[in-house]
Write a structure and sequence with these properties.
Largest sheet: none
Helix content: over 70%
Order of helices and strands: HHHHHHHHH
Structural class: mainly alpha
Shape: elongated
Radius of gyration: 21 Å
Oligomer: single chain
Length: 255
């Protein structure tokens, strides 16, 4: 039993070290690829970001609507219905916007990245690039990593904006909350630090989600079963990492 525990710990340490070295290689090659292969980065931003807009906007609209309903239902007990906008803004900007967007990104774009890279490895496309003196890390992995990192903050902004619109529609148009009070309470209460917190979370989650997807795809076992497992691990590990990091960043901002 002790031997098994030792092997498990050593295996985790080796994997974590390799993961860190992999991240360093991606970061070191990112400026060069961003300048010389900007077209590849734009293409990956389209694949990871633009193709995810539909699910992001639909989910953002209904999440905002639910916040409008819940906020009005609970705040009406204290005769504070005009603060529904503040309730929705704080929830979307600081928590729900970055977290839900990251989870949706992992489910849609992260799985696509992992399966695509894993399939390229299973069909020896990455090995063929190496035979032609093409570095697959620069040609395949870095553009996809940068595409995810760039896409995440923009998707969070879209999710938050559509969510606020959904909250406005439900609170103002359906529940008769005063529109001026809805936006005035939000503007007077929300601070720049709250927006910065949401931006920091979106950037961190973008780096983590993209890094895990690229790592799992690149290290997938080159079989159909291996690619499927890599895709599953991408979603599971990303969800756990996002929730843990969300708690840590929130605790850090609260001191």
């Amino acid at each position: 039993m002790l031997r098994e525990i030792y092997y498990q710990i050593m295996g985790f340490v080796r994997t974590f070290g390799a993961f860190q070295l992999f991240f360093v290689k991606l970061v070191m090659n990112s400026p060069r690829i961003f300048v010389r292969r900007f077209g590849l980065v734009v293409q990956q931003v389209y694949n990871a970001g633009a193709l995810s807009l539909v699910i992001i906007m639909v989910c953002g609209l209904f999440v905002g609507g639910v916040l409008g309903l819940q906020g009005h239902s609970n705040l009406s007990k204290f005769n504070a219905e005009d603060s529904v906008g503040t309730f929705a803004a704080f929830s979307l900007i600081k928590e729900l916007g970055p977290v839900i967007t990251a989870l949706l990104f992992a489910g849609r774009a992260g799985t696509a990245l992992a399966s695509e890279i894993g399939l390229m490895k299973a069909t020896d496309q990455l090995s063929a690039m190496e035979m032609m003196a093409i570095n697959p890390l620069r040609r395949v992995l870095v553009p996809r990593f940068l595409g995810g990192v760039i896409s995440m903050p923009m998707l969070v902004a879209v999710f938050t904006s559509v969510g606020l619109f959904g909250a406005h529609v439900v609170a103002v148009d359906l529940l008769a909350v005063d529109a001026g009070a809805f936006w005035q309470q939000m503007q007077s209460t929300l601070e720049i630090a709250d927006i910065y917190e949401g931006i920091v979370k979106s950037v961190v989650f973008g780096v983590v989600a993209s890094l895990i997807a690229v790592w799992e795809g690149y290290n997938a076992v080159p079989t159909a079963e291996g690619v499927g497992r890599a895709t599953t691990r991408t979603v599971v590990i990303t969800a756990i990492a996002v929730l843990i990091l969300d708690f840590m960043i929130t605790a850090w901002y609260l001191g």
